[in-house]
Amino acid sequence: MEEAVSELARLPGIGKKTALRLALHLLKEGENDVAKLGNALIRMRTEIQYCESCHNISDTQLCAICSDPRREPHTVCIVQDVRDVIAIENTRQYRGLYHILGGVISPMEGISPDDLNIQSLIRKIEGKLVKEIIMALPATMEGDTTNFFIYKKVKDFDLAVSTIARGVSVGDELEYADEVTLGRSILNRMPYQGGLTY
Fold first, then answer.
1. Cα separation of 156 and 56, whole Å?
2. Are residues 21 and 66 in the same domain?
3. What is the reported pLDDT for 91?
4. Cβ-Cβ contacts under 8 Å for 148 (sequence gap 6 or more)
5. Is 60 exceeded by the pLDDT of residue 171?
6. Average pLDDT of the segment spanning 59-72
7. ∠188-192-193 over CA atoms, to 5°?
8. HEC letters along 45-83
9. Does 196 fall in a domain?
10. pTM given for the model
11. Residue 188 carries which DSSP code?
């Protein structure tokens, strides 16, 4: 029991109390249900791999997005991790490809550019198929540092570099927006089209 609790507590966001509660729940479950969970986790770990092109999770060498002929191959959206791909895909507004860095540059956490999938991005750009990269990294100091590092690496290539818009969310009151977000909204203002802006 102690071993099970210790292993569960290693998961992100799971403390010792939650781990104990999960372990006790699994103990009450039928043996077949617990075996299904264990087998599903083992299968996930052994059968899921990373796409050789974009580093997305996949069960084949190329993920479903990279191998889809309907996607726009000249545009690549750079994101931090798989969760960002899922979030953007859920909008159904983007039809290009992705490149997952696997993190952002963070000296405080010991993450350097060499720890990220930046070299494979540069090789992709050197192949001359990419015409635009979209920086979709977190609006944090680490995200901005990573954006700047990548920009310095790619600025001499013949491609457009853009970043996702940042500003006040739809439905937000200005008084509750932080100064950085509000400042960016002012600097990145858009022409008014005489109608709704969203």
1. 27
2. no
3. 87
4. none
5. yes
6. 95
7. 135
8. HHHCEECCCCCCEECCCCCCCCCCCCCEEEEEEEECCHH
9. no
10. 0.79
11. T
Reply yes or no on whether the pLDDT at 19 is more than 90.
Answer: yes
Residue 152 placed within a domain: yes
Regarding whether 83 and 61 lie in a shared domain, the answer is: yes
Do 72 and 10 lie in one domain? The reply is no
DSSP state letters, 119-182: HHHHHHHHTT---EEEE---SSHHHHHHHHHHHHHHTTSSSEEEE---SPPTT--GGGS-HHHH
Does a structural domain hold residue 169?
no
φ, ψ of residue 91 in degrees (nearest 5): -75, -20
Residue linked to tokens 């545009």: 75
Q: Assign residue 127 the CATH number of its domain.
A: 3.40.1360.10
Domain total of the chain: 2
Give the number of C-alpha atoms closer than 13 A to the C-alpha of residue 22, restricted to the C-beta side. 19
Q: How many CB atoms neighbour CB 157 within 10 A?
A: 14
Indicate the DSSP class of residue 110. T
Q: What pLDDT score was predicted for residue 192?
A: 59
65 occurs within a structural domain: yes
Q: One-letter amino acid identity for 89?
A: E
- Count other Cβ atoms within 10 Å, centred on residue 54: 24
Same domain, 104 and 128: yes
User: Greatest CA span in the chain, whole angstroms?
Assistant: 65
Beta pairing partners, 58: 49
106 token code pair = 């963070």
Position 137 pLDDT exceeds 70? yes
